């Protein structure tokens, strides 16, 4: 109600809404695996939350949450093009308004992150299990 009255927002068609949510969930999977990686690296729960909040704040600065994305320096925009959340915060708007169905740069970036993070999580998990087996 507020979005419609103040910002003239409306829901997209069912087709574009599905495209939007498919890509949103795909991004969420990578973010969850990144959280898993953080929990594998930082074992102290009291330290994990500040580390996660610091990373989140830095990501917000790089992807243009605090300022308009186009006003960021070119080097920051170049760096942010390698971060999947940038597409979620800036480019998924075109899916929402019905101008695009798929964001291929997002898919490429997110898939690379997914493979990389899964590989790193697997390696760290295996090493932690081997270390505990030696001492038990």
Automatic annotation (TrEMBL):
Domain ABC-2 type transporter transmembrane, chain residue ranges per copy: 15-91
Keywords: Membrane, Transmembrane, Transmembrane helix
Membrane topology, as annotated: Multi-pass membrane protein
Compartments where found: Membrane
Single GO term (MF): ABC-type transporter activity
Pfam families, A to Z: ABC2_membrane
Family matches, as InterPro entries: ABC2_TM (IPR013525)
Membrane spanning residue stretches: 16-41, 47-67, 102-125
One of the record's GO cellular component terms: membrane
Superkingdom assignment: Bacteria
Protein name: ABC transporter permease
Organism, as annotated: Lactobacillus crispatus
